[in-house]
Amino acid sequence: MKQFERIGVFLNGSPADEAVLSYAGRIAKLADSRQVHAVFFGEEGTGEEPPPTQKTEFARRVAASLPAELASRTTCTVHEETGLGEVLATAKNEDLDLVVVGRRLPHSQMAIGSGFMKLARKAPCNVLVVPEQALPHFARILVPVDFGRHARMALEAAIALAHAAITGEPEVVCQHVYAVGYGHRSTGMTPEEAAQAMEAKAREAYRAFTEDLDTMGVPVEPVMTLSDKTAEVISDLAVARKMDLVLIGSRGRSRSAATLMGATVERILVFSALPVMVVKEKGETGRFLDVLLG
After folding, report:
1. In whole angstroms, what is the distance from residue 135 CA to residue 107 CA?
2. In this structure, which CATH number among 3.40.50.620, 1.10.10.60, 3.40.50.300, 1.10.10.10 belongs to the domain 138-274?
3. DSSP assigned state of 282
4. Cβ count near 30 (within 10 Å)
5. Which of 38, 98, 116, 200 lies most in the core, judged by the most C-beta atoms within 10 Å?
6. Distant-in-sequence, close-in-space partners of 234: CB < 8 Å, separation ≥ 6
7. Which listed CATH number (3.50.50.60, 3.40.50.620, 3.30.450.20, 1.20.1050.10) goes with 1-134+280-294?
């Protein structure tokens, strides 16, 4: 899986660090990644080089958590700077394919609107956000789709991960969320009739969307959901179907859809108690990132 050849693992001493290491190690093993770049953030604003003992302890912890076969492909760094800017700079400078970060569970008393949520829009590569206590399984994956190019990238990545998973019966659920607007009144249809017409149109779009899809033998099930609360119903379905991961493309088919999809991704990251992977076309935010980092 070329989209996961260089993985960045970002730790900060939070309860989610163990889950982050587990997920990064699992993906690196499944994808036969070329490099794992582990970064631990030191104290912010010290302006001093972290002590050698801190670096040694961090390297020991990473080595103990990752599969032994990754040892020769893993580098460990302790940074004195913290925050989103440091993660973005590292992702750009190390040419990462995947950034893995941790978060607290959505309703934890200590959970806050972390800057990591903005990674969904600003990172130059794929992003995986892992809640604390999560276990690294990839057999059952939910993929929200709008039938655009980025959604197709996400679906293909989900199939590859599910196919590579060693445990469990692989399954990918492909969810499309649609809503009935006020415009249906001009057609003379009832809300129920308008919903049926929209669902039929969505299913036809799904058939075209997956017509030449290589499923690699992994069952892919379409689910059409009527709702105007996209992020919430995606999170609901993930829990109801006991999925292992939500995997979503970062952008839509048009400029307006891209803005909506960006907001949806961030809301899914807020609401979902499951790990969420955001699949991006590598470098698509490169020019914006250059401006952001100066």
Report:
1. 18
2. 3.40.50.620
3. T
4. 18
5. 98
6. 142, 144, 175, 177, 246, 248, 264, 268, 272
7. 3.40.50.620
The tokens for 114 are 């972390």
pLDDT in tens, 178-233: 998 776 666 778 888 889 999 999 999 999 999 999 999 999 999 999 999 998 99
Token pair listed for 190? 């009832």
Digit-coded pLDDT (tens) for 54-68: 778 888 889 988 989
Contact 6, 97 (CB under 8 A): yes
pTM: 0.87
Cα 248 to its chain centre, rounded Å, is 6
Tokens coding 76:
């460990």
CA distance 275 to 102: 9
Confidence of residue 130 (pLDDT cuts 50, 70, 90): very high
What tokens does 101 get? 């970060």
Is 134 within 8 Å of 104 (Cβ atoms)? Answer: no
The closest of 13, 284, 117, 33 to 23, measured between CA atoms, is 33
Q: Cα(221)–Cα(258) distance, rounded to whole angstroms? A: 25
**CA atoms of 176 and 78, how far apart (whole Å):** 42
Tally of CB atoms within 10 A around 217: 9
Q: What is the pLDDT of residues 282-293, one digit of tens each?
A: 766 554 444 444
- Could you tell me the residue ranges of all domains in the chain? 1-134+280-294, 138-274
Integer angstrom CA distances of residue 279 from 99, 238, 246, 248: 11, 18, 11, 6
Would you say the CATH fold of 138-274 matches that of 1-134+280-294? yes
Ramachandran sector of residue 276 (left: φ over 0; alpha: ψ -120 to 50; beta: rest): beta
Q: Which two tokens stand for residue 223?
A: 């689910």
| Residue 50: per-residue pLDDT | 60
